[in-house]
Amino acid sequence: xxxxxxxxxxxxxxxxxxxxxxxxxxxxxxxxxxxxxxxxxxxxxxxxxxxxxxxxxxxxxxxxxxxxxxxxxxxxxxxxxxxxxxxxxxxxxxxxxxxxxxxxxxxxxxxxxxxxxxxxxxxxxxxxxxxxxxxxxxxxxxxxxxxxxxxxxxxxxxxxxxxxxxxxxxxxxxxxxxxxxxxxxxxxxxxxxxxxxxxxxxxxxxxxxxxxxxxxxxxxxxxxxxxxxxxxxxxxxxxxxxxxxxxxxxxxxxxxxxxxxxxxxxxxxxxxxxxxxxxxxxxxxxxxxxxxxxxxxxxxxxxxxxxxxxxxxxxxxxxxxxxxxxxxxxxxxxxxxxxxxxxxxxxxxxxxxxxxxxxxxxxxxxxxxxxxxxxxxxxxxxxxxxxxxxxxxxxxxxxxxxxxxxxxxxxxxxxxxxxxxxxxxxxxxxxxxxxx
Length: 436
What we know:
This protein is α/β, with parallel strands linked by helices. 38% of the residues lie in helices and 23% in strands. The longest helix is centred in the middle third of the chain and has 18 residues, at 199-216.
């Protein structure tokens, strides 16, 4: 009988065992699925089995060359999913930050020709290799902060040529390093500089030329719009997102960041994957998001960076049944932070989310915001074997260790791609394996 049982054990090429806590982070429910003295087995980059370490030997057969990670005294959790970033851009807006410090508002700086438009000028002027090099370095830092999947928006080109270029460069970077990149078209970030006096003509360009070109080249999964005063109106946003839907690009929105004007309701109307920011969302907008199953992506780093005191109503969203993800909003103007664990602390301190809610917000709920809830963000059989080993004994330590969460190892698709002990030498090995 023992031989029969052994014959039916699936072979594993990766085994992680004896985790003080293993966090499953299941997409359904509202908990973390904590397994004490937990273990996990994977093969060919996919999880085979998860459970108590005492059962791993009867559950799987270890291949002779299997990688075995002893997680004794460590916390094991899914790789982080960064569901809102503006990865590729040129230049710096450090001088604008000092204007914020002196009292200038975000929209005031933008109206004077700064803000997004200053980054558009710098990005257009930068060469492809400069942008790729900057992107590679940013991705390396994200990986060292535990990110294994990352959404990258365009939006700093604002012409057909330059938007396609940014999406093409993102696709190139996706195959050059371990972090998986999910591309989003954000040509509707603000009106392009050549159309400042004719915004409807820019909307025509988006609908009739840019979106079809992006879709034809399969350069993006989502179409995003900055639906806000000074960017795109509700009707303009609706037209752009419907055009995206007609070309197979699922909608996302930057909504209700500065005022409540119906962006959340539009996200619900169109079945958007996510509505992001939501600092000023009202009760009607919250109800609409809950009814439509739209994920709310909250970005407290941007509020802190800009010195704001009113934060997104996370508790009201959660109490209404809205799925809530959190993200860095990494960008050159309103949040340059690349540490999602630091954002978890801000979510707890300012949004009053619990540790469990914040951790889910960085993992399974962030995966939901990218329509990847069955693929990443959870440690479940069939999911990609993306995970972190943290030098922490319990999950409540994650937001408590303000800016000091120590990552011992990052595993991407079953391969160790970062180890703190070797100074990150696994980065290169992991990137090489990804290319193969």
